[in-house]
Amino acid sequence: MRRFSVSQQEKHPSGHQGTALLHFRNDISPSVGASQSTNAALKSNSYKPGPRAFFTWISNCLFTLYLFTANDFSSVLFPQTLFALFSMLSKKFSLPSPHLEAQLSIYSRIFRVVLWIWLQLLVLDLANQRLPDSVSEDTINKPWRPITSGRITVENTRRLLLVSIGITFAVSHFLGATYETLFLFTLNWMYNDLGLANSHWLMRNLMNALGITSIGAGATRVACGDLVFLIAPAARWWLLCAGMIMTTIHAQDLYDQQGDAVRRRSTVPLVHGDSMARCSVAAGVLFWSVVMPACFNLHFRDQWVSYVGPILLGSLVTARVLILREVSEDKLTFKFWALWIVCIYSLPLAG
């Protein structure tokens, strides 16, 4: 039985010794098992893995990377990808270049946006999940994550973080989102290493809002790519989105209260009580469901369709957060919250 672990000297297929960042250990079972004879051969250094073993190792490495970021797919990756694409397609935040025609296809833009966002999430999640308090919390809330499930050690996670920072910065520079990446790195350091997000619930909500909005801002710049980016109207839109997220993001804390209490984290449900937290989420969702369309000068009488989506989804989130209070229901409610956010993000297409 084996897992990813701290770097050790491995026998390379060519016969040379090499140090691997991620590799298997024979004490904890991975997703794809190996026979006892193979394990014995590995221990005796007489086994030379073929292509199948190599692809198995690659698939396990990729699956481990996926597990680090899996929790952010529905709440960050998908919504912020759509945020960037909606902003680009609306043509409110960019203009065609006067010197050349747009060369990037929509598929190329989608790939670039998804890659950039996922790399940002990988850096953020590696930095967060390697911390001792995070390991303790994940043991309760998310035992399937790579460190708590034994797929990789804390030390190897730190090394992987250093590599991912370099790769993310290089890719961001190539895609034209260097400043957004540097700002996210700074927020990451303040959030995790300085622990500002645990000190006060207001600071936690603020940093979450800044982080998510910065990811959306950088993704928008990546999506626009070869277009002329208009920073002024985009910045106003980003500020509105940050305010919306800051006042409703603690919907994610409703189902994590047990783990947050173990970590002594300051969250709205733990500081002000579960009922007060739910009421504040409901009020914020209803408020922004009406205000956001109005900010795009969408008059209800003429463009009432643009109000229907946010109000209906906002009402659904409100009803669920006030009535359904089980942990499993709160997790599903947060997914509906993410869907409501996406509906808000589509407003530039209508305005």
TrEMBL record:
Protein name: Uncharacterized protein
Organism: Xylaria curta
